[in-house]
Amino acid sequence: MSTSRIYLDNAATTKVDPNVLAEMLPYFSDKYGNASSPHSAGSEAREALEESRARVAALIGASPEEVIFTSGGTESDNLAIFGAAMKKGKGHIITSCIEHPAVLNSCEYLEKNGFQVTYAPADSDGIVKLDALERSIRPGTFLISVMQANNEIGSIQPIREISNLAKAKGILVHTDAVQSAGKIGIDVNSLGVDMLSMSSHKIHGPKGVGALFVKKGVQILPISRGGGHEKGLRSGTENVSGIVGFGAAARLAKESMGEMERVKKMRDRLMGGLLKVEDTLLNGSRTQRLPNNLNISFKFIEGEGLLLLLDAEGICVSTGSACSSKSLKPSHVLLAIGRSPEDAHGSLRLTLSKFNSDGEMGKVLDSVPRAVERLRSMSPFKSDSQMKQFSDKHATHEDDEHAGIH
Ligand SMILES: Cc1ncc(COP(=O)(O)O)c(C=O)c1O
């Protein structure tokens, strides 16, 4: 990637930290043993695997034996949900309507196959409504799965409160911490969760590796079968180099958590500047929000057009609208917090990392308002009602799968 490019799509994926890469490289060339082999090359790989497990566990306050390595956040979510469902056999699951597709589509599949699912609503800040969630608990409820922080609007959920509700009734709690791990401090014990999903590529580690925290004593079934690796929960020869990268990224994230203060300052600068543009809406909470996330709807334009104009200026962002995410539907998260489809289509997500600089924020604060003005000057719509009339007329798309953005 060109070094002059300003990358503000860190919720989609992050740059591998050069220190992470340096730790990984020997595991492709010299130290390529299979961690299950009894010889010295195998034990070298096994040691690296266990060191990485300890590093990932330390990031979330878990014990190493509670960490199961997977291929990423999607697999971790699937293992938690299907693993708990298969162990139970039948019953009721509570999730929220703002989850990532890895959770939503898993729950919808179970719903079509004999389980009952409640999708708890969120308020206008994107925080899951605890009272509604509590009311939906019933005698067959065996699992609550609510994300710790939303990937689109960064809203941080009341997981500890959810765990307290669940614990009293013997219900398992899973949280998808793919976006929050490494950005806010996590302690699984004080959160009170039974399972927690993580992904390496969101914290400057390599893609295709993740982990599921499974609290000691919690019983789930595997979703794939084979040689019985990872305590029988995730068979398959371990991706040692990837796991080493994940471990290195987790260690760096823990050590450099203070960096998130600087990231938050840059994000706040962007937020203040971009909300000065006329006819904008902040999506998500001002306070209960990941330090690196900003999501704003610019009225009367398409986020898609804005994304392309910014890309032409070397600025990579994301949008909750349509085609960039291969779905013509507006973001289910933005609709769930009460945005109109038109405002959802005009959304822009900017997600920062420690590799961004203050100078870059200055450029973005110059480019985005100019791009918005340009698009608005070409837009035939100047009011909400004109936008709505047009989109009602052109609403054709029906697709029952959640494609979502990353
Ligand atoms: C909240 C959340 N959960 C799960 C995932 C899936 O993670 P992975 O890309 O590692 O499969 C993502 C990725 O965008 C995410 O943001």
Architecture overview:
This protein is α/β, with parallel strands linked by helices and 406 residues long. The chain has two domains: 18-255, Aspartate Aminotransferase, domain 2, CATH 3.40.640.10; 258-394, Aspartate Aminotransferase, domain 1 (Alpha-Beta Complex), CATH 3.90.1150.10. Helix content is 39%, strand content 13%. It contains 14 helices and twelve strands. The chain has helices at 18-24, 40-60, 73-88, 101-112, 130-136, 159-167, 188-191, 240-255, 259-274, 303-312, 332-336, 341-345, 358-378, 384-394; strands spanning 6-7, 67-70, 92-96, 116-120, 141-145, 172-176, 195-199, 210-214, 280-282, 293-298, 315-316, 347-351. It has a seven-stranded mixed β-sheet, sandwiched between helices. Strands 9-10-12 form a three-stranded antiparallel β-sheet. It is globular and about 70 Å long. The relative contact order is 0.16. Mean pLDDT is 94; it is low at 396-400. Pyridoxal-5'-phosphate (PLP) binds at residues 72-74, 77, 100, 102, 147, 151, 176, 178-179, 199, 201, 210, 406.
Rounded to the nearest angstrom, the radius of gyration is: 22 Å
CATH class bucket of the largest domain: Alpha Beta
- Our measurement of the CA-to-CA distance between the termini, rounded to an integer number of angstroms, reads 20 Å
Order of helices and strands: EHHEHEHEHEHEHEEHHEEHEHHEHH
CATH fold category name of the largest domain: Aspartate Aminotransferase, domain 2
Q: Return residue spans where pLDDT drops below 50 for at least 5 consecutive residues.
A: 396-400
